[in-house]
Design brief:
Number of domains: 2
CATH superfamily of the largest domain: Vaccinia Virus protein VP39
CATH topology of the largest domain: Rossmann fold
Structural class: alpha/beta
Number of helices: 9
Number of strands: 11
Strand order of the largest sheet: 7-6-5-8-9-11-10
Strand content: 15-25%
Radius of gyration: 19 Å
CATH architecture of the largest domain: 3-Layer(aba) Sandwich
Length: about 325
């Protein structure tokens, strides 16, 4: 350790558990260069999908800052920047129902220890307000709900409706009465006011965000003065021989497990590729500082496969 979604349907019959049609499904999905790399549309190798059977999702509005350029990455594929959120949405709608099972299989259960370490770093206390971004199935939010107690409050947010539904059902079943569930885009966090939360967390979600700089600025905005941001994310292994074994595992075993367990090898191929395209530990620390966070540091876990970054709004 060192410092430094259920599959969406393309028909109108797709419903939520309350039998009302989802407002977040509608029509077809069109189909990077690493974030910040400017590349013309003519240079992009793959930019548009012609498969009209892939649904389009009405997602919460992104930041649209122009930070990223005309094209960006979707795993190792170069696509139009405007299409990335749609393609990521398709991935997580596809894997939502098997997300927890696959996490246990892929990490051999170690993801639970990573999350426990992040929670221990959170410093969360009774009566505080917590925002868990890209909270998915609610692993962290469930613990935070207990830690802040009845006088505190937790918001579980996700851009993906299927993932949020899984988390909502799980936490309601667990009796977490101090948790709200909000569809939100990490790039804007538009539903939330400035200086609203004592703690903001994002766990294994930042690498899927198109405009990471905008997301970090939004996280800084909604933090109270004195509040802290925690980012738990896959990162860059620090031991080269181990990194080669990790690559072999990621690009062979993960898609195979995805095929066998979730009937979806492509989503887990994207998972492995998206990790490689994510900023390394020092780069992400610098991005946090550029967003206005202070006293930033990070802790490598499992030889840098995962890192916990921490920063404060002072």
């Amino acid at each position: 350790m060192s410092n430094e979604n259920q599959k969406p349907q393309s028909t109108p019959e797709a419903t939520q558990p309350n039998e009302t049609p989802s407002p977040f499904l509608n029509q077809t999905l069109p189909e990077g260069a690493p974030q910040g790399q400017q590349q013309s549309l003519a240079q992009a190798t793959t930019q548009t999908s012609t498969n009209s059977n892939i649904p389009h999702y009405n997602l919460p509005r992104g930041a649209q800052t122009g930070n990223v350029g005309a094209t960006t990455h979707f795993g190792f594929e170069t696509i139009n920047t405007t299409d990335k959120e749609q393609k990521v949405a398709q991935v997580f709608h596809s894997v939502a129902s098997k997300y927890d099972v696959m996490n246990d299989l892929m990490s051999f259960g170690i993801h639970r220890l990573w999350k426990r370490f992040a929670i221990n770093m959170s410093g969360v206390r009774r009566g505080q307000r917590v925002l868990d971004i890209a909270g998915g199935t609610g692993d962290l939010a469930k613990v935070f709900s207990r830690e802040v107690g009845p006088t505190g409050h937790v918001v579980l947010s996700d851009i993906n409706e299927s993932m949020l539904n899984v988390g909502r059902d799980r936490l309601i079943d667990a009796g977490c009465s101090n948790v709200d569930f909000v569809l939100a885009n990490a790039e804007t966090l538009e539903p939330f006011e400035d200086n609203s939360f004592d703690l903001v967390t994002i766990s294994f979600g930042l690498r899927n965000v198109t405009d990471k700089d905008a997301a970090l600025q939004a996280m800084h905005r909604v933090l109270k003065p004195g509040g802290r941001l925690l980012i738990l994310e896959f990162s860059k292994p620090v031991f080269e021989p181990f990194a080669k074994l990790y690559d072999l595992y990621s690009f062979t075993a993960l898609p195979l497990m995805g095929k066998l367990v979730a009937n979806d090898s492509e989503s887990y191929k994207y998972l492995a590729e998206s990790i490689r395209m994510h900023p390394d530990q020092r780069t992400l620390k610098g991005m946090m500082e550029n967003a206005g966070l202070q006293n930033c540091d990070y802790h490598n876990l499992t030889a840098g496969i995962v890192a916990v970054h921490r920063g404060f709004k002072l």
